[in-house]
Every structure is written in structure tokens, then in C-alpha cells.
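Entry 12.
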Amino acid sequence: MEIDENGQIFTLEALIASLILLTSIIFVPYAITHFITENSETQLFYYSQDLLRVLSNKESYENASELERIVSDWSTDEMRTFLESFLPENVGYYVEIQWDNGSTKFLGDNVPENAVYSKIPVVIHQPSQQFIENTGIQDRSETDLYCIVEVVLILWYR
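Predicted 3D structure (C-alpha cells):
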């Protein structure tokens, strides 16, 4: 009696084909980039979160984030340069500083109704004189108390 070896090859081929199909079913959905339309508020939210995350990174400066340094020095030109280099030209911006009993405009244009808001708290260790004048918050650098403000970044499509 002769043994037909073609059956074993067909079985092995079917097993390899099923493994390839199963692998492609598992990995292809993760490789597809999801496109968001340009008028989407979701994209604006991602822009604002990324901007605030990059600015609040503490690796750049000694014990302070770039956002803390910009706000405490009241460097509106530096903030404008950063925002304009990061954001597409068709995105408008407004930055506001809020604290427990007030808020003030830091930078930007008039805010339309369809804007997206993002906030991040910032601890100001060494406020500049211009920061104190613009916010009215007292300098607490000589005490154990810190000045905590929220930076509100508002974005919209122009």
C-alpha cells in the first residue's frame, strides 16, 4: 500500500495560509491611519493637548517647564512664535491665564463660538514683575506657598 504524500503538503499549506490570514486580520487595523477631517473639533483638541504637553515638559529647563517660564516672564512674543510654528495657518488661538478669583488675556484674537478649550495647571515659582502687574497675584516666592494658575488654550479654525 502506497502512502500519498500530497495530503500532508496540502495540510501544511492550508495551515500556513490560515496563519498568514489570521496575522493580517490582527495587525492590519492597527496599521491603518485614521484621518480626521480638517473642520473637526477633535483635531483641534489634539492640537491643544499636544501643545500644552510639549510646553509643560520639564526636561528643557532647570526645575521649570517652558510653559511656566513663558507665563511667569509674561513672554507673549515667545508664546506667539511657538504657537505659530506649531499650528497650521488656518487655526486661530487665544491664551488666557486663570486663577482662583480672576482671569486675564495673555495672547490671541477674539474667540468664536465653535472654539475648543484645553486647560493645564501651572505652578509659578518665580513670577516676574510684569506677571504680578498683569494678574494682580502677589509674589509668594519668599514663602512656602506657590502661585498656581491655569493656562487655557483656545483653538478654532479660521
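Annotation: The longest strand covers residues 147-157. The chain has one domain: 41-157.
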